[in-house]
Amino acid sequence: MLIVAGAPAARCRLALVTAAFLTGACGHTEPFTTPSVGSTQPFDPTPPVRITLNQGADRDASWLPDGSAILYSAEQPGRHDKDVCLAELPPTGGRQRRLVCDLSSTGSEATEAVESPVVGPDGRLAFVQSSGAIGAISPDRGAVSVAPGTDPSAGVEVQAIPYTIAGEPRHNAVRQLRWQRADRLVFVGSQWTYRVPCQFCQADTIVSGLKIGLLDLSAAGAVLSAVPGTDFASGVTPGATDDEIYFTLGGDSRVYRRVLSTGATDVVYDFGAAGTARDVHAAAGRFTAVVGGRVAFSVDPQLGPTQWDSGGIIHVVDPATGSDVALDGPGLFRRPALSPGGDEVVAEGYPLIIVPVLDPVTGAVIGADTTVGRSGDLYLFGTP
After folding, report:
1. Which CATH number is 8-382's, of 2.70.70.10, 3.40.50.300, 3.55.40.20, 2.120.10.30?
2. What global pTM score does this model have?
3. Alpha-carbon span 289 to 317, nearest angstrom
């Protein structure tokens, strides 16, 4: 899956490419093997701690419910099938504990991807699964899957992707998958579209948040529904109780809370002049979000309202006190996840690349062109 970043006028040079079917691959391993992948220490111990170092993209990090490990999606160059694999790290970073790639007996004959892995309170693993022809620009099929433990190869498809909900446009992507409670999943239903933004550019996928979805697994057969009032959602997380969610909307600086049983919605926090809020995640009475940075919400002639996002600054908020702390780090960040205790944040970090602009006649430096790195690594922050 690709996620475009950057303003519409600069997509070619600001693209945040994290593609299951275009970039990266995973080391060929059987489920639950323990390959030798380097030091037992983080790659960079300087706060924030850089806990992965990958030529491909590392993304969609989540914590085990007891805080004992971090799961994420990992691309690793070297596999001919270009898989995106489930990886597991200790909570402090260091040596990779697990790398699970092929999800089926014929996995090496197709590109398979595990995205948005998250473990629920009862130990079940939910994730977005996709597969397609090796080298294809897009997958042939996808689904939300659930496994009885943390092995994705044991997953069972519970919701096909794409899908439609009455009164809603077709959704062909699921992002920010979370367990809203033990028997219900919540996510941002989205639409992806492939586009070549300029001559000789790589094909990008523009992912637009459409609506927050709920997937109820309490009965035989999953029941899918959309949350009213969440058009152009850019983030969602379970709230403080089993009956509420926090969410963000495209181009909006506010974090909202909705009580699912009544539909009551209010503003939890407004970042105001700090900028657009997105990628919200809550734990232990606090929440984190990405705010400001390189983000723009506009109406695309073909796609309609779309948020272009290259990342921003991580904020940690305590709603009870109104405390808002911005976390300093290199580059820009996406999709932060609070630890179960609320004292650490793991997030995707993307480097800023500064290239001097030269006068074509004299060769003198007359400015600088700043772009955002295409592939992210994971960083670990302590919180105040």
Report:
1. 2.120.10.30
2. 0.85
3. 8
